[in-house]
Amino acid sequence: MGGRILTTVLALAALAGTAGAQSAPEVRNVRFGVDGDTTRIVIETATATEFNAFTLADPSARLVLELPQSVWAVAALATGEGRGHGLVETFRFFDSSADASRMVFELSDTARVVEQFPLPPETDGGNHRFVVDVRRADRSEISDQAGFPEPQGLTALISTRADATYAEPERERRVVVLDAGHGGHDPGASGRSGTREATVNLEAALELRRQLEATGRYEVILTRSDDTYLTLEQRVRIASAARADLFISLHADSAGPNSTARGASVYTLSDHGAGRARQRALQSTDWILENAPPRRAEVNNILVSLALREKRNQSAVFAEMLLPALEQVGPVVSNPHRQRGFYVLLDSQTPAVLVEMGFLTNGDDERNLNSASFRNRLMSQVAATVDAYFARMEEPSSGPERHASLSPAP
C-alpha cells in the first residue's frame, strides 16, 4: 500500500498446549496498518501456513480468516480477543476442531478483500507472514466479489440456526427488570444520618415500577420487592429467565469520608466485564447449539460474541439517553457514563445499566434520596427514558429486534 502506514502491534506469546498442539503452527504476531480507506492485516507465524480470507456483511460486518489448527495466545488477554486498528474494531481467535482454527475480525463498516498473499521471512529464522488488505465497500460490491463464499457450512448454520434458536416471540409488552441493590443482611452504603442504601434502592425501584406499569406498555419484574437478600447471580438469572428487554439496577453511592462528592452516574459493562460475560455465557446451556459437531463450540463462540456486542451497544445507547434526563432533576458526577465489570451487568443478551442515584455520604444527596417527592421526579425521568429508548429501538433505522440485530459495540 502507498502512503504512510500507521501500525499497531500486538505481540503474541506461544501457549503451552497439548502434545498435539505443540506441533501445530504458532501464530506469533498480528499487525495492522492503515492507508486511507484500506486496512492491512499482517499475521505472522512460525512456519509457512495456508490462509483463506473473506468478508461477510451479515449479521455484522466482519473479516474471517481460516487456517489450519494453530497454537495462539494473546499476551495479557485471557479472553482470547484483541483490539484492532483502522477498519478492524476487535478480533478473536477460535480453535474449535482438530484440524482448523479461525480468526474473526469485527469491522466498523462493510468491506471487501482487495489483496491476500503470503510473504517469506524478512530474515533467517524470522516469522512467515500472511497479508490481507481490506477496503471499505458497500454491500453490492461485497456480494459481487468473485469467490465470495455462498452461505454454507458455518455461515449458513449461523444465519439459519441463530434466528431459529434465539429470535424471541412477539410480546405485547416489553419486559423491564428492576434490581434494587443490596437488601437483607447486606444493607449497602450508609448515609451520614443513618440512611440504609438498601432501603432507598427499594423505594426507588417500587416507584419506578409504579410509573412504568401505569403506562400499560411494560411488564415490570423486581428482583426483590422487600428487604430480602439475593446473590448477584440470582439477580442476573431473574433477568435472563424473563428474557428481559432491559435491566436497570438501582444503587446509591458512597465516598467514605469525602462528604463533598455528589451526583448521579450510570455504569455499563466494561471490556474486562465483557470477557467475564462471554465466559459465563459459554458455560450456560442456553447457548448450546445441538447437532452441529465438530464446530459447535466455534458457532457458540461467534453467537455469544455477536449478542454480547449488541447488548453493549444498546446499554450504551440507554445510558447516554438517561444521563441528560437525570440532570434535569439533580446533579451528575463528572464523566458520568462509566464502565465497570459489575456482576449484575454480565448477562450476555440483556441491555443493562447500573444507576448510582447519588451519594449517601453527601448531605444534600442523602436528603434527596430520602424524599419521596425527589424519588418520584428522578424515577419519572428514568421512566421517560425507557419510553424514548424503546421508541428509538423500534424505529426502522434502528434495525431488527434484539437477538437478530448484531452490530459492533463502540
Automatic annotation (TrEMBL):
Coiled coil: none annotated. Residues 1-21 form the signal peptide. Its EC number is 3.5.1.28. Pfam families: Amidase_3. The keyword NAD does not apply. The keyword Disulfide bond does not apply. It is an enzyme of class 3 (hydrolase). GO terms for molecular function: N-acetylmuramoyl-L-alanine amidase activity. It catalyses: Hydrolyzes the link between N-acetylmuramoyl residues and L-amino acid residues in certain cell-wall glycopeptides. Residues 236-387 form the MurNAc-LAA domain. Keywords: Hydrolase, Signal. This is N-acetylmuramoyl-L-alanine amidase.
